Amino acid sequence: xxxxxxxGTPKTPEVSFIVDARTLSxxxxxxPENSIEFYSSLIAWADTLCSSEGFVEVNINLEYFxxxxxxCLMDLLKRIESANVEAQVNWHYEEDDxxxxxxxxDYDAIIDLPFKLIITEG
Amino acid sequence: xxxxxxxxxxxxxxxxxxxxxxxxxxxxxVFKEQTSTHILNWIERYLNSNSTVTRxxxxxxxxxxxELIQNLIHHSSTSDSLFVFSKSESENRFSLSSTNLVDTKQxxxxxxxxxxxxxxxxxxxxxxxxxVMTRDSRSEHGGGGMGLLELAKLSNGNIESELLPSHQxxxxxxxxxxxxxxxx
Lengths: 122, 184
What we know:
The complex is a heterodimer of chains A (122) and B (184).
Chain A: E1 4-6, E2 14-18, E3 23-30, H1 35-50, E4 56-65, H2 67-82, E5 87-94, H3 98-110, E6 115-120
Helix pairs in contact in A: 1-2
Chain B: E1 22-29, H1 33-49, H2 55-75, E2 81-88, E3 93-102, H3 104-118, H4 122-134, H5 147-154, E4 159-165, E5 171-179
Antiparallel strand pairs in B: 1-2, 2-3, 3-5, 4-5
């Protein structure tokens, strides 16, 4: 199993999935026209990682994401939720960005994983 | 809503802007991935260079633009689709509108979805969005009927829609989303 590092683009997030650290980090923006195409390999990677024991940390620090990506993020988090691993989600949002704060709160309400909502400077 | 209110046959030659609104950007044509990239880049540059627009307001406008333009990519196939970004000084708001041809089945679905959205409170809207998020069903492009809910939420319910007769068996669907100023 290899690490995944994908540089960010104006429409897709920077991806840093590290096997040894068991961390999954997404940052930047996620507004691709076809999010399933982008996220399918990332979700498969998370499935493989979660098939082995150990704490998993998810860091989401997105400036923008479209509704299509929001479904894919939901899929990713649900896979981790349903796996037999302990995990934590760190949801970063810019100060004054109520939409991103509410999005984090909504995922927190739906997904049964510990969520930390973290303010970042704009 | 259309600028040529007295025209007997509405068409895409008309712009979905209220009288007195200033068009900042408009594009009519086929919507593809590259088109979306260019338009979104342009809007982002405009917002970044406009010191009167706060960052929270700018982010809302950009989010609305993403949803409207991507809807046009996924749901319009003709070269007649239209996107307009405008500003009203008198009402102190930005508006983003999309116009495209829909068939009667699509129009029925849109009317039904918009009726549901327009009759519920902000909290109910958020709950509905959460319930749609958890559904397994989704469109082939990855969405799951969340676009209109997201637009309603981003604009605090300030969305307007109109279905107008067009040629053949098609209707003209115009959706406008209004964003009021937000203090930083």
